[in-house]
Amino acid sequence: xxxxxxxxxxxxxxxxxxxxxxxxxxxxxxxxxxxxxxxxxxxxxxxxxxxxxxxxxxxxxxxxxxxxxxxxxxxxxxxxxxxxxxxxxxxxxxxxxxxxxxxxxxxxxxxxxxxxxxxxxxxxxxxxxxxxxxxxxxxxxxxxxxxxxxxxxxxxxxxxxxxxxxxxxxxxxxxxxxxxxxxxxxxxxxxxxxxxxxxxxxxxxxxxxxxxxxxxxxxxxxxxxxxxxxxxxxxxxxxxxxxxxxxxxxxxxxxxxxxxxxxxxxxxxxxxxxxxxxxxxxxxxxxxxxxxxxxxxxxxxxxxxxxxxxxxxxxxxxxxxxxxxxxxxxxxxxxxxxxxxxxxxxxxxxxxxxxxxxxxxxxxxxxxxxxxxxxxxxxxxxxxxx
Length: 386
Ligand code: NZQ
Ligand code: ZN
Fold this sequence. Notes:
binds zinc ion, 8 strands, six-stranded parallel beta sheet, globular, binds 5,6-dihydroxy-NADP, 2 domains, two-stranded antiparallel sheet, alpha/beta, Dehydroquinate synthase-like, alpha domain, Rossmann fold
């Protein structure tokens, strides 16, 4: 396996009723800004639980962080931060609220002229406000990682910094019961693809990482459909397993010491940036095509994936790989997400502008070998057409 240094400092408070731990998790003398999205927390009881837990704190709120959070919205929070001398942020929501709060945290103490440089120029971050979070949508892993993805004018770009890793995350599976089927599906598929991006590369004999990854994939394959089925969708154990799997899929553990891909994500971000397609639904379209176009680079791991995750053992190598890709597509279809560009009404004429955006964003050497050039990305999108 490759050399690595690993540390994940986010304290996890998992289980039903854990929102009440906010009272002790956030310093009593903090001036807290609670950030949230479009209002789901006001209708599912989460807001009341947060308010009750913070009854002895001084806190303010910033609402309206949208899915695929935008620079313009997030900069509005800076006014509140200055006005009330905010020194602690509590993000209550899904990946968008948490990612957006990470940007708010870094922008508040940014020393340069324009905080957008954090995203577009990877400008150095020397300080950020501390963040805690209450996760309401298991999907991105943002609740315990250093990543954040911010949008501005059709450009959707990531930044990463240790200083924006949440200090703690509350994971109460009961709060996910109010999710729509669409968001449940999106979450399961996003976590699945995060695992794949750190697993389906080439072997470095990272046995622990591989088997953790295979366990997460199998958990998502088993539990994901149960969260959509009428008789099991309210099962807290199902929701809990999905929630913990999604956190573990992108908290740094399975990616330490192994090669990583991320081509599916970077191509997917362009689909969201240009066409507003939900993050996970871009991934379910792009991943099968990546598996097909990059089969040679991923051959050994595709065969391992076929055998260990899907129990495919019959037939020659090419047959087993093809079956594994079909099984992946079938799983995505079971999870009610699209697997082709035609499923989202995109066609061949939409590919050129996407490639131009990849080039503009410097995404010209993607994949675990850096060999996914714009031409390979074009082949991937062409393969994903129909
Ligand atoms: O805004 P509200 O009203 O809260 O509604 C949200 C939103 O409309 C709703 N929702 C969340 N929890 C709910 C709920 N509705 C009912 N009950 C609940 N308990 O769900 C909708 C989608 O929320 P969003 O936060 O956008 O979804 P998700 O968690 O999938 O986050 C997606 C964002 O994260 C980024 C994506 O690019 C995208 O911008 N990612 C972040 C990553 C990271 N930080 O490491 C990695 C990922 O690959 C991803 O790129
Ligand atoms: Zn993702």
